[in-house]
Write a structure and sequence with these properties.
Order of helices and strands: HHHHHHHH
Number of strands: 0
Radius of gyration: 36 Å
Shape: rod-shaped
Structural class: mainly alpha
Helix content: 40-55%
Distance between the termini: 97 Å
Bound molecules: heme C
CATH topology of one domain: Cytochrome Bc1 Complex, Chain D, domain 2
Largest sheet: none
Number of helices: 8
Length: about 190
């Protein structure tokens, strides 16, 4: 091969290389290498570490019984201003937007004479013991879904304890305070 032929061959190889590089670059422009923001196939992984497969237990409001021993009914009476738009707290008090609340602790739910309860509350069952009052007053609509008591709830456990201490006194005879065993059983549950 003469020198010119060799140069042609060399130039051809060089050109082929350049074309190849340009081609790669061009392909890169056409189909850019971008990282995917998320996997193309999203695999749903439940966020529980629950191996037994049981449904997560709905945790109710904080235990109340231990707080009742030191609860302050006078502070509860002040809190009751949040309720008096709808409730009367007095012996022989009248029903207003809500039922009269005299002697409500430990009496049947939805049992005040002459008050027209929601079906949800009327059918709920049980008595207003300390724990159910705690649940209801924390978030009425969460505790009895469908209740017509339009009240957001008392968020602080201490407020609920004080409120319940006041409710307990608004009765002909105050209900017994929880025993040490009941307190221990509640905090263990
Ligand atoms: C906006 C009005 C309103 C406010 C405020 C309100 N309630 Fe009620 N409450 C009601 C109504 C209405 C009912 C009946 C609910 C039903 O039938 O579902 C009720 C029911 C109750 C019951 C159940 C009584 C029973 O006979 O079963 C209790 C206990 C109670 N309220 C306590 C309170 C307390 C304590 C407060 C204040 C912290 C309060 N409520 C604030 C309207 C109200």
């Amino acid at each position: 091969m003469d020198e010119l032929g060799f140069n042609k061959l060399f130039a051809g190889v060089l050109l082929a290389g350049l074309l190849l590089m340009a081609g790669v670059k061009f392909a890169d422009i056409l189909v850019p290498h971008t990282e995917l923001a998320q996997n193309a196939y999203v695999i749903e992984v439940p966020e529980t570490t629950d191996v037994a497969g049981t449904a997560p237990v709905e945790t109710g409001p904080e235990p109340i019984l231990a707080l009742l021993a030191d609860a302050d009914p006078v502070a509860g009476e002040k809190l009751a201003k949040k309720c008096t738009a709808c409730h009367v707290f007095a012996a022989d008090g009248a029903n207003k937007v809500g039922p009269a609340l005299w002697g409500v602790v430990n009496t049947a739910k939805g049992a005040v004479d002459g008050f027209s309860y929601s079906a949800a509350l009327a059918g709920f069952g049980g008595v207003w013991d300390y724990q159910s009052l705690n649940g209801f007053l924390a978030k009425p609509k969460a505790y009895i879904s469908g209740t017509k008591m339009n009240f957001a709830g008392l968020k602080k456990p201490k407020d609920r304890a004080n409120m319940i201490a006041y409710l307990r006194q608004q009765a002909d005879a105050a209900a017994a305070l929880p025993t040490a065993e009941e307190i221990a059983a509640e905090s263990a549950s």
